[in-house]
Write a structure and sequence with these properties.
Layout: H1 30-33, H2 36-43, H3 45-48, E1 53-58, E2 64-69, H4 81-92, E3 100-105, H5 117-126, H6 129-132, E4 135-141, H7 145-154, H8 160-165, E5 166-169, H9 188-201, H10 230-236, H11 244-256, H12 270-281, H13 298-309, H14 321-325, H15 335-343, H16 348-366, H17 368-371, H18 375-386, E6 394-395, H19 399-411, H20 413-416
Parallel strand pairs: 2-3, 3-4, 4-5
Antiparallel strand pairs: 1-2, 1-6
Helix pairs in contact: 11-13, 13-18, 18-19
């Protein structure tokens, strides 16, 4: 039992959490825990260390945002570009089955780290329909003459449909209404470059606020539902152990969307999502979805994902993040018991909410013949919504352990959350 009075056990014994990252202890049988994610992490460690590609939160439609930073590319003499291509595909494979967005930060590409034209052509061919189908937006930030010429050269190879997904972005503030800039791992040199561009644009007038500016803290209204802590919601919504947004969206999906193919994978209108958030934050008491125009359950699904990802701290807490990343180093036969021991560390409100969500997702998975959302697919979607690091960004390689941890919770939810279900 933790300090909040919460209790969760499997069997009679207590399990000591496994060593933190950096400890020297290892299982005696390496083959027992060296799974695909661990092998991939080892194979691509020399590339992942640069942080060239990172996942960082969601856009305003609830889609994962993948950031590619040209300034983090090392010299061509140091980088194996064929291996880089394999790493990019491995990283994107975790997201291409669902809708996602890409932000490409072009500043920092120069003669020493610029990939060859032949490599770019090969890369475009390698990223086939599997990768392009669910890519909803590709933002090319700080484009130069080089990249515009390059796009013209590739024009015969680029389909009209894919071309519509690409947008040139001259200044970071231009995408502030579709992407949460404060969640993006934007390199400092890119921020400095953006600031200089904005200054040049506004020599004679007040410049638009650039991405490096920060708002003064604003005290949230007591009716606020998005972007506030679980403690805040519990204090200001007496009688609700489960946040209103979570209750409403799950209730709606259970009644109207369990058979919807692509549930939680498809996006919804960004305008409709903003309207939902506005109504909730204003304290609207009437069942929210009767006031929003939509014709399928995807808006409810996107709203649920957006709520979870906009929490100031993830449901699984920052405290457990490093332990979660270590799950692949645990022998498979003991992983469930380790997960149980970690869940005991959660604050009471976090555990109650996590149980509610897991019970619901088990119901969704029971309809996977129709909605195609198996435990595996649900883990990919919800893992990044339940756990992330304090700096908001996460290496794509870290998504493997996070998804594995989520998969274990889903597969063993009846054991791990043995109390009577509220779902």
């Amino acid at each position: 039992m933790n300090q909040d009075g919460h209790k969760a056990t499997i069997g009679a014994s207590q399990v000591t959490p496994y060593p933190e990252i950096g400890d020297t202890a290892r299982p005696t049988s390496k083959s027992a825990w060296l799974d695909d994610e661990t092998r991939a992490k080892e194979e691509f460690a020399d590339i992942a260390k640069y942080g060239i590609i990172e996942v960082s939160g969601v856009d305003t439609s609830g889609r994962p945002v993948i950031v590619v930073s040209a300034s983090k590319l090392p010299s061509n003499k140091e980088l194996d570009h064929k291996k880089l291509l394999r790493y990019l595909k491995f990283s994107l494979d975790k997201y291409v089955e669902s809708d996602y967005s890409v932000v490409y930060l072009h500043y920092g590409l120069n003669s020493s780290n610029k990939p060859s034209f032949s490599w770019l052509r090969e890369a475009y061919k390698e990223f086939d329909r599997k990768y392009k189908k669910n890519l909803k937006s590709l933002y090319l930030v700080h484009p130069t003459t080089f990249i515009r010429i390059l796009m013209n050269v590739f024009k015969p190879l680029i389909s009209v449909k894919f071309g519509r997904k690409m947008s040139y972005v001259n200044y970071l503030h231009e995408i502030a209404d579709v992407v949460h800039l404060d969640q993006l791992p934007i390199p400092q040199d890119v921020l400095d470059h953006d600031r200089e561009l904005v200054k040049k644009l506004n020599k004679a007038e007040t410049r638009p606020r650039d991405a490096s500016d920060s708002d003064k803290p604003v005290e949230p209204l007591t009716t606020q539902q998005f972007g506030v802590s679980l403690d805040f919601l519990n204090t200001n919504n007496p009688g609700y152990n489960i946040p209103k947004v979570v209750q409403d969206t799950i209730s709606y999906i259970k009644e109207n969307g369990l058979s919807t193919e692509g549930l939680f994978r498809r996006s919804a209108s960004a305008i409709a999502l903003r309207e939902v958030q506005k109504l909730y934050n204003a304290g609207t008491t009437i069942f929210i979805f009767t006031q929003v125009v939509f014709d399928d359950p995807h808006l409810a699904a996107v709203t649920l994902k957006a709520f979870l990802r906009q929490l100031p701290e993830p449901v699984l807490t920052f405290q457990l993040y490093e332990y979660i990343l270590n799950i692949s180093r645990v022998e498979e036969e003991t992983r469930v018991r380790v997960v149980s021991s970690l869940l005991q560390k959660l604050p009471r409100l976090n555990f109650i909410l996590l149980k509610y969500i897991m019970d619901f997702l088990a119901i969704v998975a029971a309809h996977s013949d129709e909605n195609r959302m198996t435990f595996s697919n649900l883990a990919v979607v919800f893992g990044p919504k339940l756990a992330w690091s304090t700096d908001q960004a996460a290496s794509l390689v870290a998504m493997g352990p996070i998804n594995t941890f989520t998969m274990l919770m889903l597969q063993n939810h009846e054991q791990l959350f043995a109390e009577d279900s509220d779902c």
